[in-house]
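Thread: 3-methyl-2-oxobutanoic acid complex, take 2
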Amino acid sequence: MDDVKRVTTQTLQQMKKTATPIAMLTAYDYTSARILDEAGVDVLLVGDSASNVMAGHETTLPITLDQMIYHAQCVVRAVSRALVVVDLPFGSYQGNPLEALNSAIRVMKETGAHAVKLEGGEAVVSAVERILEAGIPVMGHLGLTPQSIYRFGTYKVRARDEEEADRLRKDAKLLDDVGCFAVVLEKIPAELAGEVSRSIRMPTIGIGAGMHCDGQVLVTHDALGLTTDFNPRFVRHYANLAETITEAVHDYVQDVRTRQFPAENESY
Ligand code: KIV
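Output below.
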């Protein structure tokens, strides 16, 4: 799949068929999106986690549709290979299917992104259908859905009990049946994620959902070690950029203080 010129929703379905794991990361700005795209990420998610990692809010709830559109525009400008998916933020789709459709149309028209993602199962399925009818691809999101954090009350693993696991199985089948092209499974037992992945047609993208999903997603700031105060078990740090940046900035400050910067060959 590394030779694919442009990743599409069909590419992802093909990857599931050939058991090629899908690599997804979040992106919110032009410069990082360009690096991630060139490094070979299949899907870039303009996640509403921008509310946390870009804006410093405690939850994903405050970010607005206008703000998501701004981040998506920056990402789309940078990307030439990856599929760009944009989160519909809290309050932009739960009201009714027409509200959901209008939000999805704004995202597609104003950003040039390729698909939208929204959280929930049965409760949002009519909204999902309305968006799909307009020709807009939809990615689902089940398990720990951060927009419902005040209902859950905690960020603990979801669907550990049989009742919630069964609801998740049904919701995944529902989203699959109406035609979602993929679904994020967040923070659920690995065994359940594996069972769901095997039972549905669309690819599952796991975060804290174990190794049996059809793909994996992480928040880029977590994977690259830019966030220092968020260390759940499911995050693997592929770099420690917070440390690298701190050292670089210390060196810069030191060089300025001691007039080591700029040098003769850095001046006109
Ligand atoms: O907003 C986000 O970053 C997400 C991922 C955690 C899947 O939804």
